[in-house]
Amino acid sequence: MLDDTFLERLSQLSKRQQSLFCVAILQRMSPNYLLFCESTEFAGAEGFDKYLRLFWEALLYPKTKFNAPVHQERFQELIPDPEQFDSYGVYPALDCCVVAECLFASLSEATGEEAEQASQTSMGAVLGFLSLLREEQDESKLLDEELVLEEQAFQRQLLDDLELLVDNLDNLKELRNFALNQGVSNLGISLD
C-alpha cells in the first residue's frame, strides 16, 4: 500500500496539483468505465469522454470557464446503478465516477483531501479486482501482485512529477500522456 509519507505529500499539493492528480488518476482508470459501457450497452461512454476532455481543458487552459457545480449535476446521469447490473464491471465504473466526483470537488469546493481520496479509490479498485480474481479475502496477501505494484509505481511517479511540475502547457500535455498509460487502466484493461 501507499505509506503515510506518500499520503502526507499528497496533502501538501496545491489545489491545482490536487486537481491534476485526480484527472490523471481518472484518465488512467477510464478504460474501466468505457469497457463497462461497451459490454452492457450503458449509454455513458460519450458523456464520460466529454467530461474527461472538459476536465483536461479546464486544467490545461486555466482561463477556460468551467462551472463545476452545474457539470457535476449533469454528470450524475452517467453514474450506473449497481442494482441494475449483474456484472462485476459496474464496480470499476463506479470507482471512476467516485474519482470524477473528487475532481469536481477539487475544482470547486476543495477540502485538500481529493487527491488522497482519488488515490485510495484507484488502489481499492485494484485490490477489489484482484480479490475477485484470486478469491482472496485478505488484502495483505495481494500487496505483491503485479497490478498493485504497478498502481503504486504509477501513483508515486505521478506525485513526483506533480511536485516538480513547471506549470506550462507542454509539461501538462506530457502529464496527460503519462496518465493515458498507453490505453491500459489500473486493472490492466485496454480497449484495443
How would you sum up this structure, described in words?
The protein is mostly helical and 192 residues long. Helices cover 67% and strands 0% of the residues. Helix 2 packs parallel to helix 8.
Mean pLDDT: 93
- Secondary structure: number of strands: 0
Low-confidence stretches: none
Helix content: 55-70%
Secondary-structure class: mainly alpha
Shape: globular
**N- to C-terminal separation?**
29 Å
Quick gist of this model?
The chain is mainly α. It has 8 helices and no strands.
Mind sketching the topology for me?
Elements: H1 4-11, H2 15-40, H3 45-60, H4 68-75, H5 90-107, H6 114-134, H7 146-164, H8 169-180
Helix pairs in contact: 2-3, 2-5, 2-6, 2-7, 2-8, 4-5, 5-6, 6-7
Core attributes:
67% helix, 192 residues, mainly alpha
